[in-house]
Design brief:
The chain is built from 13 helices and nine strands. It is an alpha+beta fold and 407 residues long. A seven-stranded antiparallel β-sheet has the order 6-4-3-2-1-5-9, sandwiched between helices. Strands 7-8 form a two-stranded antiparallel ribbon. The N and C termini lie far apart (119 Å).
């Protein structure tokens, strides 16, 4: 009797282990798609009310009506709750991840309701290639695989789709005829930022000379629209025969035309206003033979802060911010030198320093277009403001130095 109980217990434990093993194998094994399954590349158009949406988005749709699958995968997700999120963001060590949406239609409806262009390109794949593509997506979506170190240009939600197509379909030939000679990554970004003057300014001053080199055709595909264009007339080899890689293109939604009003509070208008305010104060100071110290501290502290920010981006981050020519106007040494203006022992040195700064910024304006890194045109009023106040500081400190020497 006792042996029978042991035998029953042994049998139950053995069955439970076999069930668990079978369940784990079942979890590891990818779903088998039906012959009706398809893979599509989805392109969502730009959205100009947010900077991070200004360039558009890409995803991959897996549709299998027989298996009741309509999923979308994309590589454009990040989590504010991740450890040291803001510090990693500042250093350019942003962890993005792949994600899967099991209700594609709801995802599509969100973009349509946001008045964004939605385009679908159904790829011309064999059933085996569809299954390989699906397995690749599922493998990349595993928790241990889904995260990656994001880069604005060289590794983002669009380039990941480009790489997936080329890896899974090695005979695919993307159409790169859209490339234009001498067009840089900055030029490509500027094409999307005409309605975002502040975003355009931030990108222009923060991202530096590395994005001013001529963009290679493959590099264009950091932008989702160029992934669409590369696939549009792409080909694939089937038994020595070249055929279109895209079986069917579907224009799901075309946005209602219209532009986002930029308003009057643009960088150029703001810097023009700053120029006139500082000019008014400087004129008043000249008439009263004094110098308003507070305006110098305010102006050069702000500009100096940007200088130190550019230095930080250059040397302490992985952003594309090396060799930033904006340091010609945003001189970091304004901080702390501006706080020494009222120290008598520094007057002679700082008078020459600010005279040099005035001359440097005049030369910057004269040779603006010759600098390898194009400087943002909205900065011209700001540079004029720096020139005006620098020469006045030099004049005032020189005058005080002469008076002290006569005494």
């Amino acid at each position: 009797m006792r042996m029978n109980n042991y035998f029953k217990l042994y049998f139950i434990v053995l069955v439970a282990i076999l069930v668990m093993i079978q369940g784990s194998f079942g979890q590891e094994r990818a779903l088998e798609l039906s012959p009706k399954a398809s893979i599509s590349v989805i392109t969502f158009g730009p959205f100009q009310e947010e900077l991070w949406s200004a360039f558009g988005h890409n995803g991959i749709r897996v549709y299998d009506p027989q298996s009741n699958i309509d999923w979308m995968y994309d590589w454009g997700r990040f989590d504010f709750e991740q450890t040291n999120f803001f510090w990693n963001f500042a250093r350019g060590h942003m962890l993005y991840s792949m994600g899967r949406t099991k209700e594609y239609q709801r995802h599509e409806a969100y973009y349509i309701n946001s008045n964004r262009r939605v385009q679908e390109q159904v790829l011309n794949l064999t059933h085996q290639e569809v299954q390989l593509f699906f397995n690749y997506l599922e493998q990349n979506n595993l928790p241990e695989n889904r995260e990656y170190l994001y880069n604005y240009v060289y590794d983002n939600c669009a380039t990941r789709i480009r790489d997936a197509v080329q890896q899974i379909i090695p005979t695919a030939q993307l159409d790169l005829s859209f490339a234009v000679a001498d067009k840089s990554v900055r030029d490509l970004m500027d094409d999307y930022l005409s309605e975002q003057p502040w975003g355009d300014l931030i990108i222009d001053v923060a991202l530096a000379h590395p994005i001013d080199e001529e963009a290679k055709p493959e590099t264009y595909m950091f932008l989702p629209d160029y992934v669409y264009m590369a696939l549009k007339d792409a080909t694939v080899q089937r038994e020595g025969i070249s055929m279109p890689l895209v079986k069917r293109s579907i224009q799901i939604h075309e946005p209602v035309s219209g532009s986002v009003p930029t308003g009057i509070f643009t960088p150029f208008n703001m810097f023009v206003l700053v120029f006139f305010i500082v000019g008014f104060i400087t004129n008043k100071d000249f008439k009263n033979q004094k110098r308003s110290h507070w305006i110098d501290v305010t102006l050069f502290s702000i500009v100096g802060f940007f200088g130190w920010w550019f230095v930080f981006l250059w040397f302490a981050t992985s952003h594309l911010s090396m060799y930033n020519w904006n340091l010609l106007w945003a001189v970091p040494f304004y901080i702390p030198l501006v706080f020494l203006l009222n120290r008598s022992q520094w007057r002679a040195i700082l008078s020459r320093f600010y005279r040099f700064i005035g001359i440097l910024n005049i030369l910057l304006l004269l040779f603006w277009t010759l600098i390898p890194q194009p400087l943002h045109m909205a900065l011209i009023p700001l540079v004029l403001t720096i020139i005006l106040r620098s020469f006045y500081i030099s004049y005032d400190l020189g005058k005080l130095t002469v008076k002290l020497q006569k005494k």
